[in-house]
Batch of 2 targets.
Target 1
Amino acid sequence: MADENDKSTRQARGARDDRLKSALRENLKRRKVQARERAAITDPSQNDDASLDEGTAGKTGD
């Protein structure tokens, strides 16, 4: 009888661990996507500023 309880407890713990692993994996994927989106949003604005600076650096003040 005690063996059955121990076995069901281990199975429940294993199922819980599997759920936690999958939840953590999904959370990590979501956070990576968010980080990529933030990086993509900030990079173009920096590149636009740099291209403006390059264009004005070659001109002289006539």
Note: The CA atoms of residues 44 and 50 lie 10 Å apart.
Target 2
Amino acid sequence: MTGAAPVAGTNHGLVDIAVIGGGINGAGIARDAAGRGLKVLLCEKDDFAEGTSSRSGKLIHGGLRYLEYYEFRLVREALIEREVLLASAPHIIWPMRFVLPHSPEQRPAWLVRTGLLLYDHLGGRKQLPASRSLDLSQAPEGAPLHQEFRRGFEYSDCWVDDSRLVILNLIDAAQNGARILPRTRAVRARRDGEVWLLEMQGHDGTAQTVRSRALVNAAGPWVQDVIQGVAGLNSAQSVRLVKGSHIVVPKFWAGPQAYLLQNADRRVIFVNPYENDLALIGTTDIPYQGRAEDVAIGADETDYLLQVLRRYFRTPPQPSEIVHAFSGVRPLYDDNADNPSAVTRDYVFEVDGAEGAPPLLSIFGGKITTYRRLAEQAMQRLAPWFPKLSSAWTANRPLPGGDLGGSFDDFSNGLARDYPDLPRTLIQHYARLYGTLARELLGPARTSVDLGHHFGGDFYEREAAYLREMEWARRSADFLDRRTKHGLHLTPAQRHAFENYL
């Protein structure tokens, strides 16, 4: 964990909370704590959301299949959070309808319908339409499916741009005074009286230190590395690493709907519209033993996903049509379940710190949908060390850019009226990624020429400058793969030219 020898660096003085980990849980906790008036520092060893939080299925959902494992509390919490998050960030989160072709070999129709009715009502659904049955032999949603799938169901969940959700939380944290340090590794932490002394090291070797009244370990797959390797402690809890992989192909059906496919092994596969003309397909569930940094999709996983598509669709994509693939490691709380798909998606906190000693709060497990509620509960666990802690606040506050003042379509149309000489696809891109901050990005620009050098697709120099100045982007993948998805729409030559530009 030590890396190269440090060079002279920065002493950040005393903070209330130092957060290790710049994924969704760390970002959410930093935002929550900073908004309560606490002094916060967050460090992340790589780019923000570079690990699990940019490699999810990109859904805000209750987890329909978790009902089979009797995870009613988790599903209810997730469904409640689905409503909260949809209201807080309608530019990066939006409703999506999922078609579930009935496969009687896996689950009887009455069981699926009962599960959907429970899903409709468990979380106090307000904004999304209810589930319904479909005659796939007549409904347009059945057109791309094999003729044998004549009965189906449809229900609602939400899409999310996962890595942007992380960034928006960090922007809000910074606006509330938090110090945000990307590419800064936690090297060593030790208790020094009533505070932690946390030593950090930047990618350039610069040493940084901070004294903190509390330490939060939100390192995801690396949570035990921080406990043992950084803090020198032991833990009774553990995480179970499960690999989930996705492929991206050209969209091969008409309509805005997504599909949820039941497989013979009782797993489910999502087939979702992605980036307008693409489809995102996943995920697998495979136990993983290697370094989280080295995770990659295997040929067996690709074959598995394509085989499920062939079972349901008349004209499924071919292996040669895969334009992108990615794999992530989910740090699930180890509940000793035999089946990786049955491992709980719930989260567990562990607090190391007797009375009078500064606490280390470590987070095991969790899912992107419940990150905000996780952050609230993390603050509750730290409340004994902060007796003057103010009340929770994030449930009714929009994330940056989310204060649209109406529907997303109305906002997007208004932005188009204000910038009539910009292409509508470009306006839609800015509206989706930045919401009301799009006007801050565009500034006085009125035509494409005003946006500077054109890198390809909808990517211009003005946006690159904004991402660098306002969103901590430094390397090519920060810009093209996480802050945006421009990388999916650039040719290899265009991508190389942007790397040269940086």
Note: Confidence is low (pLDDT under 50) at residues 1-6.
